[in-house]
């Protein structure tokens, strides 16, 4: 009998005394599916962070603005003139024709990361300090965001 498992998968009969057509396939790495018929998707491409800056003023007498963004994104920070950053959009998947309505709110203010650490952590050099970023989220479940000026 030919191997019913694709891509050199290993065929193991469940009970060949009862039925020759009941089996399972042991898949090789990089394949999936009941018969190893599908190639697993993998992310092999590195896409460096792209920072886009759009400068726009709110007209006098208005409190809203519209921004038309052509490139896909999953996170959007808004920086207001006093220098504070606000998390205004956060999503898992990009939708090309999506209309997003959001607002800048004090509860979405992102604090500078160094303001959140104690004096001991502030003395750490940059690569070492980054290892402790997740600690901030574990210590404060209400923390929505923070930013590191080195990464913005």
UniProtKB/TrEMBL annotation:
Coiled coil: none annotated. It comes from the Eukaryota. Keywords: EGF-like domain. PROSITE patterns: EGF_3 (PS50026). InterPro entries: EGF. Pfam families: EGF (PF00008). Residues 1-37 form the EGF-like domain. This is EGF-like domain-containing protein. It comes from Rotaria magnacalcarata. The lineage of its organism: Eukaryota, Metazoa, Spiralia, Gnathifera, Rotifera.
